[in-house]
Amino acid sequence: MPGAAAHWWLHETLAALDAALRERGGRLLLMQGAEREMLEACIAASGATGVYWNRRYGGEERDGDARLKAGLRERGLTVESFNATLLYEPWTVLNQAGEPFQVFSAWWRACRRAGDPPPPASAPRRWNFQSLPAGLARLASPLDDLGLAPRKPDWAGGLREAWPAGEEAALERLRAFFSDDFEAYASERDAPDLAATSRLSPYLCVGALSARQLYAALRAGQYDGAAGSPGRREASAEKFASELGWREFCYYQRYHYPDLARRNLRPAFDAMPWRRDARGLRAWQRGLTGYPFIDAGMRELWRTGWMHNRVRMVAASFATKHLLLDWRAGEQWFWDTLVDADPASNPANWQWVAGSGIDAAPYFRIFNPVLQGQKFDPSGAYVRKWVPELASLPDRLIHQPWKASAQELEAAGVRLGVDYPHPLVAHEAARERALEAFARTGKAQGKPARLSSA
Ligand SMILES: Cc1cc2nc3c(=O)[nH]c(=O)nc-3n(C[C@H](O)[C@H](O)[C@H](O)COP(=O)(O)OP(=O)(O)OC[C@H]3O[C@@H](n4cnc5c(N)ncnc54)[C@H](O)[C@@H]3O)c2cc1C
Question: Is 392 annotated as a binding residue?
Answer without folding.
Answer: no
